[in-house]
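> call design_seq(struct)
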């Protein structure tokens, strides 16, 4: 399964999902896939991740941390979402914007 807790709600009413890196997928691809899912926007419509963080450095840092079994965490924002990347763990994406669908419970 790609996403966990897709209905989790952030304290400010936004959405939170955890996204697992798929085999042969870079961490950058995982981040983009997660932001796309939480915002309901096609991946191709998102700004390039390198506008927010050095994508190549993020991929290399995560690969290196896995090779040497070190604990690394990187946090940044992209497309208005807070992103937390940890080696050996899922990518956490938080969209602080409440759902604008107007639905009620």
């Amino acid at each position: 399964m790609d996403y966990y807790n897709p209905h989790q709600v952030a304290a400010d009413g936004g959405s939170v999902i955890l996204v697992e890196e798929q085999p042969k997928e870079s961490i950058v691809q995982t981040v983009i896939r997660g932001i796309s899912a939480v915002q309901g926007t096609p991946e191709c419509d998102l700004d390039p991740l390198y506008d927010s963080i050095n994508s190549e450095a993020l991929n290399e840092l995560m690969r290196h941390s896995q090779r040497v079994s070190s604990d690394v965490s990187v946090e940044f924002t992209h497309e208005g979402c807070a992103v937390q990347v940890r080696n050996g763990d899922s990518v956490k994406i938080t969209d602080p914007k409440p759902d604008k669908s107007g639905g009620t419970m």
